[in-house]
Amino acid sequence: KTVGVDVAILNYPDLSIKEIKPFSTGDAVNWVSAVYEGDDGYIYIYGAESTKYNKFARVCRTPASNPLSTVAYFNGTAWTSTSEKNGRLLGGLSENFSFFKYQDKYYLLSQENLLGPNIYLYDAASPTGPFTNKRLVYTTPTTVSTWNVVTYNATAHPEFISADGKLLVGYCTNEIEKGTGIWKNADTYRPYFVWVSNWQ
Which of 34, 75, 123, 164 has an alpha carbon 20 to 30 Å from 24's alpha carbon atom? Predict the structure, then answer.
């Protein structure tokens, strides 16, 4: 259960912890889904609001020149000082998703909710959406070996887009039932990566 989110500020280059700042409390929104540094002077922080059968993307932003000095939350139409339920951007997502910009266009990539094998990509008009043109870009194997395995947390890696335009996407795997599967075969608990073509 999510009880809150803290932000660690690191020293560079040794990456020792300089300071830890509380960011949120409670389990209303888990603000760890994605981070995007825009070209408008803001850092956008994305979180997942969970209900019993769904997860919704939420977003807040903070000045890039002085991160966390102030935080504003998108309520569906404007930026406010408090997080509100009507700020849901998109549903049917995974707890972890990716938001990125490539060649002057925004994208959101997510595995479907409830550990489904399908990975979808959306076009976004801005860091707050709207999100359109939902399309399937990859379906993960539901079984890696003789043990039942789920796949989750699909993540886009736009920093590695190939010369011919392929997008690198990673996802995680794990055994869904307690047992000895992961001890017998390490492939049931490791990240996998695929190159996705024609994703734009």
Answer: 123
